[in-house]
Design goal:
- By secondary structure, this protein is mainly alpha-helical.
- The chain has one domain.
- Helix content is 53%, strand content 0%.
- Helix 1 crosses helix 3.
- It is globular, with a radius of gyration of 12 Å.
């Protein structure tokens, strides 16, 4: 499996972990989901999502990608994907 597909999978796996915490009617849909303007990504969910993603990146790609300490709040999944892809 290529790097791009693997990265997309782990982003969605991390999203699934956030969706478990949300009520059924408030699940974040996959695709190019919004992050910055999505009220479901409150500060706790956002941090949890990024930390889960960092762990999965380290496990899958053997790379340390710091997403949490950045002064960036990603607009959407595609922006996040491009940032990570360039780091791995």
């Amino acid at each position: 499996m290529n790097k791009s597909k693997q990265l997309e999978i782990i982003i969605y796996e991390s999203l699934d972990e956030i969706n478990v915490l949300l009520p059924t009617k408030k699940k974040i849909k996959k695709g190019n989901f919004s992050i910055k303007k999505n009220s479901l990504f409150d500060s706790l969910n956002y941090i949890t999502f990024l930390l889960n993603l960092e762990k999965k990146i380290k496990s899958r790609f053997r790379k340390n990608v710091n997403l949490y300490d950045l002064d960036i709040i990603f607009e959407n999944k595609n922006e996040l994907f491009k940032y990570i892809f360039n780091k791995i």
